[in-house]
Amino acid sequence: FSKGSAASGGSLRNAMVLSDLGAQITGAFRKLNTAPIIDDELLDEVLKEIASALLHADVNVRYVSELRSNVKKRVLLETDAGGVNKRKLIQKAVVEELVRLVSADKKPYKLEKGKCNVVMFVGLQGSGKTTTCTKYAHYYNRKGWKTALVCCDTFRAGAFDQLKQNASKVRIPFYGDYNETDPVKIAEEGVQLFKKEKYDLIIVDTSGRHKQEVALFEEMQQVEEAIKPDNIIFVMDSHIGQACYDQAKAFADAVKIGSVIVTKLDGHAKGGGALSAVAATDSPIIFIGTGEHFDEFELFNAQSFVSRLCGLGDISGLVSKINEAMPLDKQPELLNKISKGKFSLRDLYEQFQNLQKMGPMGQIMQMIPGMSQLMPQGAEKEGVKRIKRFMVMMDSLTDDELDCVVQMGDTRKLRVAKGSGSSPYEVTQLLEEYKRMEKMVGKMGKSGLFGKGGDMSQLQRNPGQVMQKMQSAMDPRMLQQMGGAGNMMKMMKEFGKMDGGGGGMGGMMEGMGGLGGIDPAQLAQMQKMMGGMGGGGMPGMPAPKRGGRR
To answer: Where are the alpha helices (DSSP H) in 82-182?
Structure first.
């Protein structure tokens, strides 16, 4: 584990207490970017603000002190070399120091599909271990893995019932025994059973224990010896902050911990302390829990996490989510439609579906540079609720209505309202939302941004022209929030770097000079979410904070 670095915090979703940490770091960077002169006094002021934010997030004071010292040394050394942008240098140094703390030199165990991977979960009582086992199983189950759960927690009353209920909700097989009190026997029997049935991933949930409970620690070692797991995951509760350092060390001394999952990052200000305490295990963080629901479980990438924390977005994560949500074979078809300025209610329905597949909207907003602070508290849930209502209304439309070949008169609106259990006013709201989207798509088509058939390869050599045309299709306030045209160009270049040459998405990236990672309709949908395209925002979403040009 890298020393000489400092810490981190939680997600920037407004619902999270740790959003304060991200807001303060972003504020410090903003001060840096707007200052006319970068001198030692300003550097000290910026680092003081960042250090204060980290200390409030319960990060160990030693790590914070080392962060300030390392950043100052680096800035001094590289500035003396000459020819450097001091603003960018300071920002880069801070980000890299934050990344270093939550990154381990040790690589996590890589699961192999087609082989029986046995993973054992250990952790403190009340750390959310049983729920995390289910989230972990559900994550891989959705990716096509054959997963199963084994409950050998015989110490806590109701542990098997909890796992049974969780597993039933996500339709994952489980094994346990109400009458057996020996956890080692249950673990052995469960693992053997699922190995015979050739399951890809067998997850063993053990009893929660404390470092003072010697008997339970011996039991944990006996379970490990019996099932010989491929990987042992330590579940760390972020609520106890720095205090989990000693606990983590005790577990690491008792069994061979291969990975760490940090839970409850959505509900407490001490998450930074917990993340910095991972050093005790000398093992990488592989997932973080950001809520109670089974889908509130994020694959952890240190660079992406810190980048989102600092308000710099996460382009690679965004591309990945869009690829998962939208089938590659559908992307060229949609691009072709948009190139002709065509957008029907059926297309809007498909985009609503894709948006839901991408996961919580708060996470998506974090991935777009400058967007993390735009969504007001409570807006996400309300917006998702309204989208679902709109989809129910659209289920009552005929094929001709979905394809917009007939006009939606009052009689049709009344029929749709009755069929979907809504009011004619709500149906009118849906149609108004569609018209705004159609107008924006038409504007993009007419701009000439796309060539015939959605081919933009003729603009690949002229990113400036692509930038100019994208600006014409974007609301000025949206562009300002994303850091202006310069930052937008940087995003485009980042998309260009990540083209894996795979299918439709690869072609789109190439064609759009680097911006193709976000297909235009998806981008438009997210812009609508913030009210960036014309009047109003996504249904149920308040308009963004006003700022920049009017």
So the answer is: 86-101, 129-142, 159-169
